[in-house]
Amino acid sequence: MAAWKDGEEKEKAIESAQESFAFLEKLIQGKKYFSGEDEIGYLDLALGWIPLCLDIVEEVGGIKLVDAEKFPSLLEWAHNFAEIPLIKERFPPRDALANYFHKIVGLKRSKK
């Protein structure tokens, strides 16, 4: 929601998202994957959108949700996850995903 809201609603949405990312940061600290093993688990798969979509959401929304200073472990996990060959091969092209997000955010903003 932070990508298409304005003013105070946008700030609240950013704060809420960052609280969620802070929770994930604590969960992943000291681990390569959320499973705590050297293999991905259910939570890794459920959160697999982060390395794929986060920078696009930030770009489209003109916001910054996750930075390396506040969330170093989460960003390291995202990099590790995105580099798994099976995962990497199945990510859609970034341009196609960015175009999709631009359309969705434009639609949401037009309904205000």
TrEMBL record:
Name of the protein in question: Glutathione S-transferase
The superkingdom listed in its UniProt entry is Eukaryota
Q: Which top EC class is given?
A: transferase
Where does it localize? Cytoplasm, Cytosol
Keyword Transferase found: yes
Ordered alphabetically, the record's keywords are:
Cytoplasm, Transferase
Under PANTHER family, the record lists: GLUTATHIONE S-TRANSFERASE, GLUTATHIONE S-TRANSFERASE, GST, SUPERFAMILY, GST DOMAIN CONTAINING
**Transferase: is it a keyword of this entry?**
yes
Listed EC numbers:
2.5.1.18
- One Pfam family assigned to this protein is GST_C_3
Q: Which part of the chain is the GST C-terminal domain?
A: 1-112
* Entry function: Is involved in the conjugation of reduced glutathione to a wide number of exogenous and endogenous hydrophobic electrophiles.
Q: Where are the transmembrane segments?
A: none
What chemistry does it catalyse, as a reaction equation? RX + glutathione = an S-substituted glutathione + a halide anion + H(+)
| Similarity remark | Belongs to the GST superfamily.
Q: Which organism is it from?
A: Salix suchowensis
Show the InterPro entries listed in the entry.
Answer: Glutathione-S-Trfase_C-like (IPR010987), Glutathione-S-Trfase_C_sf (IPR036282), GST_C (IPR004046), GST_C_Tau (IPR045074), Omega/Tau-like (IPR045073)
> What's the main place this protein lives?
cytoplasm
